[in-house]
Amino acid sequence: MRNIYDFYITPDEYERAKSNGISGKTLDYRIREALWDKEEAITSTIQVNKVYPKEIKEIAEENGVSMSTLKSRVNLMGWDMLRAAITPVMDKRQNIYKAIPKVRKYPKEIIEKARLNGIPDKCFYNRITKYKWSIEKACTTPVMTPHEMGLANKERGQIGLDLIFAHNMRKKKSL
Known about the structure:
Number of strands: 0
Number of helices: 11
């Protein structure tokens, strides 16, 4: 729990912050509004925004690189300004195709095997996620035709009816 005196800034603390390049206004904000620890607020340096030369901005514009892309390449990815300005932006489609192998959950060979066996991708994924089949069973078991599904449901229904009637017959015999 913070004490009310944690928000009081002494003249000495203002001087220490000033010697670290931190203005009084910034120190006030850090301690009283952003609730920083006093020592951290006094000693943490201020982040300075990078200045992008006019030539770099023009090169970037000629190569179809927006300012936000330029800034993220320099600040987040650590590229030098010239490289960030001259490297063309990848087409969205290229970007997607580049990302697919990184986010692929199942190997491409397994999915191809399922396709060769006539199993649609959605069916393959449902078998694994929804029905908890093994990967091998999901990619090799052929898809049932509507006729086969009807016969299977008929058999299941018949088994259920047989159980119901057997139960009723036992009740009648016991009476």
